[in-house]
Specification:
alpha+beta, Aminopeptidase
């Protein structure tokens, strides 16, 4: 399956808002934020998000079917970038969309000077963890809670680029 992937740029905040809110509604357990929190963000906040991270969207004929983002947030090592967010619409899971999105984030990270791509995945997300393991990510053994208000355990994974 060939899926067009595009990087969001300034002005694409409406696309980001739509796909991000769909992801939060579909898989609220997988993200460090909630649909209710992000639905209240104004246009400027969505536009700012596009400049703070590299966002990639998978598209079909009807619009966005997946989204992934990468950044250098929360890691002081200049050679590390983080896969911050990943989601694929339920009807497209298992059809190479996630692989395509991950490939774009990894290519962006390499181009941005990274030698390692890291991510945090909830410990109970077996399908996601299996996907990341198949892609070459290795568990580091580091764990943490998502945040104090949401005691969901997350594990850190790394991929050498």
């Amino acid at each position: 399956m060939i899926v067009p992937i595009g990087r969001l740029v300034r002005g694409d905040w409406e696309t980001l808002r739509a796909v991000r809110l769909e992801a939060l509604a579909d898989a609220p357990y997988a993200f460090g934020s909630t649909h209710a929190e992000e639905a209240t963000l104004d246009d400027a906040a969505w536009e700012l998000r596009i400049t703070e991270q590299a966002w990639f969207v998978a598209l079909d004929a009807f619009g966005p079917i997946g989204v992934a983002s990468g950044g250098q947030l929360r890691d002081p090592d200049p050679g590390v970038r983080t896969l911050r967010s990943m989601w694929v619409h339920e009807s497209f899971r298992g059809r190479s969309v996630a692989e395509a999105l991950l490939g774009e984030v990894a290519a962006w990270a390499r181009g941005d000077g990274a030698v390692t791509l890291t991510l945090w995945a909830t410990r109970d997300a077996a399908r996601a963890r299996a996907f990341y393991a198949k892609a070459g990510f290795i568990a580091t053994g580091e764990v943490r809670e998502m945040d104090p208000a949401r005691p969901v355990e997350m594990a850190r994974y790394e991929l050498t680029l």
